[in-house]
Amino acid sequence: MPSDYRKLTAEEIKVLENNGCSCQNWDNIKVDPAFDCSRIKTTNFSGDVTLGRFDKNIEFDGGITRPTGIKNAAIHNCQIHNNVYINNVRNYIANYIIEDDVIIENIDLLAVEGQSSFGNGTEVVVLNETGGREIPIYDRLTAQIAYIIAFYRHRTILIKNLQKMITDYTASVTSDMGTVAKNAKLINCRIIKNLKIGQGCTIEGASRLENGSLNSCPADPIYIGHDVIAKDFIVASGSKISNGVLIAECFVGQGCELSKQYSAENSVFFANYAGFHGEACAIFAGPYTVTHHKSTLLIAGLFSFLNAGSGSNQSNHMYKLGPVHQGVIERGSKTTSDSYILWPAKVGAFTVVMGRHYRNSDTSDLPFSYMIESEDESILVPGVNLRSVGTIRDARKWPKRDKRKDADKLDCINFNLLSPYTIQKMLNGTALLQKLAKTSGHTSDYFTYHSVKIKNPSLYKGIDLYQMGINKFLGNSLIKRLEEIPFKTDAEIQNRLKPDTQTGLGKWIDIAGLFAPEKAVNDLLDKIENNKIKSLEEIKDAFWDMHKNYYTYEWTWALEVLQKQLNKSIDQITAKDVAQMVNQWKDSVITLDNMLAADANKEFSDVSQTSFGLDGDENTKAQDFLQVRGDYETNSFVCEIKKHIKTKSNLASELLQRIKHLC
Q1: Which of 30, 194, 281, 303 is deepest in the core (most CB within 10 A)?
Q2: What residues does each domain of the chain span?
Q3: What is the C-alpha radius of gyration for the chain, rounded to an integer number of angstroms?
Q4: Which run of H or of E encompasses 347?
Q5: Does residue 662 register a pLDDT over 90?
Q6: Residues 302, 275 contacting (CB under 8 angstroms)
Q7: Are 155 and 529 in contact (CB under 8 A)?
Q8: Which is nearest to 196 in space by CA: 183, 209, 205?
Q9: H or E element: which one contains 396?
Q10: Contact 127, 284 (CB under 8 A)
Q11: Cβ distance 143 to 252 under 8 Å?
């Protein structure tokens, strides 16, 4: 309360009482020196209350203007700042700090009961529904910190230290007073208990919100809409929850949208998650996970960049000691309509899952695959998704669909389709497929691996596709490293190839959207265990440093692979070797792009035109299709592929020209 706040005068008390207001002890009311008592009507006060000045009008939709003030309400133990508008509170507002320019109209109840942490410290039981991977949520939880808490349980001191940090943070925000921050709006709501409401947040028509935080900000406000019921939750900036959503024990990250009767419990959703119609139970949903269908259930799994088709489901009906199942679908995968996966299972990155799979498979070293049900068997087609136009389209659309407007972004997200993480999988997959061919024999019709079958032609095609993907990645990294430098000697090339750091060597991991060297992550976790890093913000910043240094670390890793591919060390690499790699890269890029173009062309086939030109002949059908879908030659994505081929060819030619005199 500002130091110049004063008690009401006898005349002001008389005006208030004439306006239908009442209070057991008017001495407990403190007001701004410029307080206008005419703006307060039919209101009961109790406890300690402070009131700011009311000297503005507010404008509602439709051009309706009303004066700020309080009318038809019961206010208990509240601090009400300047130019707040409160009207028609059916029960009461209790134990709240209501900041400037807040609008509260037609609500049942807004109250804090006892001490509240506003959702902070709530343990969300992800993956194993009987416990063991609980994530204690807090206001600034990131996908990376949540991932470590959930999946690094083997490092008990680490988990203990992280839990203590969150416990300490929770204690720091626990209070018997709630906050409705500046410019927030609460309109036509029912029960709101123990809720912290951030700046610019709009709550409109919500049914019941209890024990939560809405961490809205002016740059990226939160919207909570009609018939939402939420308990024990935290919502980050820029998210929208509306149309009958039910959530309990959940964290909703930045830029997420839940709507159309979606329901979720014991789940965490990170940046740009979209959930409509379906349900989630005990899931860890990394960035850009999307589910749009009523019959879709995501349960007890780790997902990111997932597109879940209608009727997608995962479960384990074999457990006898409780629901301890869990599964992993690595980034960029899709599940088609009516797909089913028996947990536990692990699906490799950028895999399309079609049909129902009743065996516990692990395809994590075989990314970019199709997993297809055939006669109750799981058939894997390795690498084929590298030539799918849908895969490339997804990778290009994700950065454009980042809804986060808050400058203070929580989650680190790397959108790269080809990275040390996916290329190491391709290298492992290539070695694996070659080993299968060697041990089972070249004439085998099928090769079996971890409960999936791979047809003979698919195996060899997979090796070829993976090699093209590897060539493309290595070439991209090499050309980027050598760009714009006029080399005079092989020694100058060798000097430029030297890495800037040793960080990046070895295994890479995908930490819920962040690609990082495993060693760098473990070094950070060691510091947390040894109390060299003691705050959650320091941990968040450390992950962001890894993210910002991605390309530096990537080159260190790529160079190591490049040397193995050439069977040469840096000081042996010549301009001729560079030219060889660039030509391999160019061939791989053009071949893959042509495959993408051929895949895109299927969208314009005669079969695709079925159901067009409904009442006409073949010509009408073709013209209708042309008007609705366009044609192959002018399609924007096809044009982009052709441009990509030309651009990459020019890049190759430019580098080859710069080193031609050394070859």
Answers
A1: 303
A2: 1-101, 576-662
A3: 30
A4: strand 346-347
A5: no
A6: no
A7: yes
A8: 209
A9: helix 389-400
A10: yes
A11: no
pLDDT in tens, 36-90: 999 999 999 999 999 999 999 988 877 888 999 999 999 999 999 999 999 999 9
- pLDDT 10s digits, 453-476: 999 999 999 999 999 999 999 999
Which helix (H) or strand (E) element contains residue 257? strand 257-259
Q: What is the pLDDT of residues 279-310, one digit of tens each?
A: 999 999 999 999 988 889 999 999 999 999 99
d(CA 596, CA 630) in angstroms, rounded, equals: 18
Among 265, 261, 262, 238, residue whose Cα is nearest residue 251? 265
Evaluate whether 176 touches 114 at the Cβ level (below 8 Å): yes
Take residue 512 and report the two structure tokens written for it. Answer: 């819920």
Quote the CA–CA distance of 122 and 115 in Å, as a whole number: 14
Q: Which two tokens stand for residue 596?
A: 């993408």
Strand spans (E) along 383-501: 446-449, 452-455
Q: What single-letter amino acid sits at 151?
A: F
Instruction: Report the amino acid identity of residue 379.
Output: I
User: Which amino acid, 656?
Assistant: L
Task: Dig out the tokens for 202 from the structure.
Answer: 């709009």
> To which residue do tokens 């090699």 refer?
467
Q: Please provide residue 259's backbone torsions phi and psi, each rounded to the nearest 5 degrees.
A: -160, 175
Query: How large is the average pLDDT for residues 408-430?
Result: 96
CA distance to 7, 14, 75, 342, per residue, from 11 (Å): 12, 5, 21, 75
Nearest to 335 by CA among 300, 296, 281: 296
Asked if 253 contacts 237 with a C-beta cutoff of 8 angstroms, the reply is no
Average pLDDT (403-411) is 96
Name the residue type at position 417.
L
Per-residue pLDDT tens for 115-135?
999 999 999 999 987 788 999
CA distances from 563 to 434, 455, 580, 624 (A): 21, 32, 13, 54
Among 43, 46, 52, CA closest to 26: 46
